[in-house]
Amino acid sequence: AEAIGCPLEEVRQLAYAGQAEALHSLEEWLEEGGYMPASESDHGELAMTMSKVLSSLESREQLLLSLYYQHELNMKEIALVLGLTESRVCQLHKQCVLQLKQRLAESF
Description:
Number of domains: 1
Structural class: mainly alpha
CATH topology: Butyryl-CoA Dehydrogenase, subunit A, domain 3
Low-confidence stretches: none
CATH class: Mainly Alpha
Largest sheet: none
Number of helices: 5
Oligomer: single chain
CATH architecture: Up-down Bundle
């Protein structure tokens, strides 16, 4: 933040915006051509595929996603848990979402 002359909070918001864009991209892909469940059995298939894809991630990536989506920790809290900087957690989250998107595309 100091190097570019911006307030730290503004840099955080920019990082979060990039993260939100990656997540939106995954959701959009699922809805617009990647895979959209049409029935209850399709929902089950999607859940099984998601589980398989998530388990293929490294344990640290799984933990990060679990802390964010299941335990609803914010990036700052996850950074403290993992001993990383908040910006690094944002980067890792974005990478995880992109990996999920790629692996889901390969599965369908």
